[in-house]
Design goal:
The protein has 381 residues and is an alpha/beta fold. The chain is built from 14 helices and 12 strands. The protein has helices at 3-9, 50-62, 74-82, 99-108, 124-130, 153-163, 175-178, 213-226, 232-242, 245-264, 283-289, 306-315, 345-350, 367-378, and strands spanning 67-71, 90-94, 115-119, 135-141, 166-170, 188-192, 206-210, 269-273, 296-301, 320-321, 331-333, 358-361. The strands form 2 sheets. A 7-stranded mixed sheet has the order 1-7-6-5-4-2-3, sandwiched between helices. Strands 8-9-12-11-10 form a 5-stranded mixed sheet, covered by helices on one side. α2 (50-62) packs parallel to α9 and α10 (245-264) packs parallel to α14 (367-378). The radius of gyration is 21 Å and the shape is globular. Bound molecules: pyridoxal-5'-phosphate. The site of pyridoxal-5'-phosphate (PLP) has 16 residues, from α3 and α4. GO terms for molecular function: cystathionine gamma-synthase activity. Belongs to the trans-sulfuration enzymes family. InterPro entries: Cys/Met-Metab_PyrdxlP-dep_enz, PyrdxlP-dep_Trfase, PyrdxlP-dep_Trfase_major, PyrdxlP-dep_Trfase_small. It comes from Cyclobacterium plantarum. Pfam families: Cys_Met_Meta_PP.
């Protein structure tokens, strides 16, 4: 099946007891057994829930994997992956990544004796040079957040296979519509479902998709043992959101292209970061591994002043100032003080995340209104 058909149908069947076309919200914690151990495959809703199971199967199909696992948040999904490791193990991670991921690496799991290396993965030889016998996981985000760098997943996949190390990719920004890391050699795909997959800014959820049975078993063991599972109502909302994922992503990408071009020609704007530009340093890789370029854009202002960025952010009307991304509505944010505030200034500046950097999550409104809004807001500079 092609993507749009999978989004609507994969893993989903009408409810056998009623014919309900939509997956019911199985708001239940437990399931009646006929005799001890004699049940219909569901025992307790931390372990399995029918609404969650349908969503997990749907997500697995969208990422061309075999197993999906859902969590109470994206961070809970990352937490589960890291629990595959033990003290002494090492992780090589993208240096330009989601602030919460940086925090769980450096403030939580480093306490338990896991060592993290942060590198610019645009040059994959840097990754290879850090591998040693303790390396267990390579962790990548592409496009990176918020600098919109592109990392070659296929190149990392080759390195991970060569050394027998797991490759995990946070595919939140791209979504399975734009990019399928498992096809390019990743072992684990992770999502903050909160963002584009749910798509309507009304749910917090995470997910993992893998191909391999043994890896899925280990992750499912952790999911059940540690228990950070989402509730059935949220699973229902995400199933509903995913039915339009392909349509939303097409429009996000189309609006993203329009807004990126508009910003690039604006006299108050200095740099624009968007992988769809032909002069983006890794445009050719983006072209190969992504179906389109999405609606995430970052830009800096001329003179790079924090005060100007704040004034612009206050002046936006259609773009609302908020954490998060990937909803139908356009959002703007200031990474240095919001999503990436947990990363020390020196680390931030090393990757180009400067004080005037503004990140846009371009929604699916009419692009003309979005352009007008940007034009008005930039009058503040
Ligand atoms: C939001 C986000 C996360 C964390 O997910 P939550 O659902 O907020 O816990 C991880 N990675 C990326 C790229 C994100 O944008």
């Amino acid at each position: 099946m092609k993507f749009g058909t999978k989004a609507i149908h994969a893993g989903i069947k009408p409810d056998p007891s009623t014919g309900a076309i939509m997956t019911p919200i199985f708001q239940t914690s437990t399931y009646v057994q006929k005799s001890p151990g004699d049940h219909k495959g569901f025992e307790y809703s931390r372990t399995q829930n029918p609404t969650r199971q349908v969503l997990e199967r749907n997500l697995a199909a969208l990422e061309n994997g075999n197993h999906g696992l859902c969590f109470g948040s994206g961070m809970a999904a990352i937490d589960c992956i890291l629990k595959l490791l033990k003290p002494g193990d090492e992780v090589i991670s993208t240096n330009d990544l989601y602030g919460g991921t940086y925090r769980i690496f450096t403030k939580v799991f480093s306490k338990y004796g896991i060592k993290f290396h942060f590198v610019n993965m645009e040059d994959s030889t840097q990754v290879e040079s850090l591998i040693n016998k303790n390396t267990k996981l390579i962790w990548a985000e592409t496009p990176t957040n918020p600098m919109m760098n592109i990392i070659d997943i296929r190149a990392l996949g080759k390195i991970s296979k060569k050394y027998g190390v797991l490759l995990g990719v946070d595919n939140t920004f791209a979504t399975p519509f734009l990019q399928n890391p498992l096809d390019d050699g990743a072992d684990i795909v992770m999502h903050s479902v909160t963002k584009y997959l749910a798509g309507h800014s009304d749910v917090v959820m995470g997910a993992i998709v893998v191909k391999e049975d043994k890896l899925a078993e280990e992750l499912a063991f952790m999911q059940n043992s540690c228990g950070a599972v989402p509730g059935p109502q949220d699973c229902f909302l995400v199933l509903r959101g995913i039915k339009t994922l392909h349509l939303r992503m097409e429009r996000h990408s189309q609006n993203g292209k329009t807004i990126a071009a508009y910003l690039k020609n604006h006299p108050k704007v200095d740099k624009v970061y968007w992988p769809g530009f032909e002069d983006h340093p890794n445009h050719s890789i983006a072209r190969r591994q992504m179906r389109d370029f999405g609606g995430m854009i970052s830009f800096t202002l001329i003179n790079n002043r924090l005060e100007d960025a704040i004034k612009v952010l206050e002046k936006f009307k259609v773009f609302v100032l908020a954490e998060s991304l990937g909803g139908v509505e356009s959002l703007c944010g200031h990474p240095a003080s919001m999503t990436h505030a947990s990363i020390p200034r020196e680390e931030r500046e090393k990757v180009g995340l400067s004080d005037s950097l503004i990140r846009l999550s371009v929604g699916i409104e009419d692009a003309e209104d979005l352009k007008k809004d940007i034009s008005k807001a930039l009058e503040a500079v």
